[in-house]
Amino acid sequence: MESGKTVLIIPGLGSSGPEHWQSLWEARHPEYQRVSQTEWERPQRLDWIQNLNAAILAADHPVVLVAHSMGCIAAIHWAAAACNTASRVVATLLVAPPDVEAETIPVGPTGFAPCPLIRLPFKSIAVASTNDPFATLERAKMFAAAWGSELVILESAGHINAASGYGPWPEGEALLQKLMS
User: Fold this and answer.
1) What gap in Å lies between CA 149 and CA 165, rounded to an integer?
2) Which own/partner pairs from 160-166 qualify as long-range (CB within 8 Å, at least 24 positions apart)?
3) H or E segment to which residue 141 belongs
4) Which fold has domain 2-180?
5) Model confidence pLDDT, tens digit, residues 46-82
């Protein structure tokens, strides 16, 4: 565990394939742990946040969450519901949070809308793209402000995934290190 912290990877729909930056980070850092979900294509909010909560409770050290896409929304719903376990999380990297109320969201996820607009009880960085097909920049700015997150805007980065050219993504790892220090 780097810096005495447990890093939990929270993928979005499809569980981030082998070329996705989350998977590549896990391969380089075997101490990072992926939060397993029972259903990756048709997730139910309660199931995802219960699995996330179990992973947080199982951690031996303070937790840093690294979420992508729908994983961000699961983390936000968890934070809104986790009255007695939120103190176990010290920071969160929220990459490409989708607008679950938009028409562009894929069919499948259940119960994720609306996204809670709560101030997170831990430090966080939200990373958004100027051309994410799943969230306008205006909505991403609104989310980051509501959550109390530092906002990092990437120019024309799509959904900040392998399909958008984000494989290893060292800049993202630098953001994670900033959160962990």
Assistant:
1) 25
2) 160/21, 160/68, 160/95, 160/96, 160/127, 160/129, 160/132, 161/16, 161/20, 161/21, 161/68, 161/69, 161/96, 162/17, 162/19, 162/20, 162/21, 164/129, 166/20, 166/21
3) helix 137-147
4) Rossmann fold (3.40.50)
5) 999 999 999 999 999 999 999 999 999 999 999 999 7
